[in-house]
Design brief:
6 helices, 9 strands, globular, 36% helix
Length: 217
């Protein structure tokens, strides 16, 4: 019988994650162009809303570090709402339970995704949030493990990591090889333009997911 282990206990570093799952990081810029090319334009209303969101973040951040719940309320949730991920055709699951079987079949990693956005049976976006005292990159091994649990291994998987101050996007491909790549880090704490960039990427990913579902169905 396979041994069940919590993802947070089994995967403590990126190198361990890569070794366990035979996963490789791709440095070729053409692998993950979705966060850079043909990004949708934002209208004046969207830009104004992002300015409000940034000022709200700065207001609360001035009192000290933010816990994970506030990061979700002040950053992750507003961005997902503006992008349309909370509306049809997408559905949201919070604290979604997942299991990943390691290649040798002797271990099953079990954990819970903070937010899973789905479109029918397809996973559209995996979101992991951390409190501001923790680096966004620290969530990467855990997020990759969760993303590998997708039931649709032929489609690219996308993830979003945030600690309130920063946002980082992930692209994971499982076939023919297990490969992933990262966007640059969008520094929400620093500039309003970084909010705009993060929102543009999310809007682009939403369009990709809608298009992929349309062609598959």
């Amino acid at each position: 019988m396979a041994k069940v282990i919590a993802v947070t206990d089994a995967v403590k570093s990126l190198s361990e994650m890569e070794a366990r799952f035979g996963l490789r990081r791709v440095e070729d810029e053409q692998f993950f162009t979705e966060w850079q090319q043909e990004l949708p334009e934002l209208n004046d209303a969207e830009r104004a809303k992002l300015q409000v969101l940034r000022q709200r973040l700065l207001y609360h951040r001035a009192e000290g570090d933010l816990l994970e719940g506030l990061v979700m309320l002040l950053v992750a949730s507003p961005l997902l709402e503006q992008t349309g991920f909370y509306d049809p055709p997408f559905r949201m699951q919070a604290e979604a339970g997942v299991e990943v079987t390691v290649i040798d079949g002797e271990e099953i990693l079990r954990g819970r995704i903070d937010v899973l956005i789905m479109q029918r049976q397809f996973w559209a976006l995996v979101l992991e949030s951390k409190k501001t005292t923790i680096s966004t990159r620290s969530a990467l091994p855990q997020a990759l493990a969760y993303m590998m649990a997708t039931p649709e291994s032929d489609q690219p998987q996308y993830g979003m990591l945030t600690n309130g101050d920063d946002v980082l996007f992930i692209k994971l491909v499982l076939r023919p090889e297990k490969q992933y790549s990262l966007s640059w880090v969008f520094s929400l704490y620093t500039l309003t333009q970084e909010w705009q960039g993060a929102l543009q990427v999310l809007k682009k990913l939403a369009r990709i997911m809608e298009s992929a579902q349309g062609t598959s169905g």
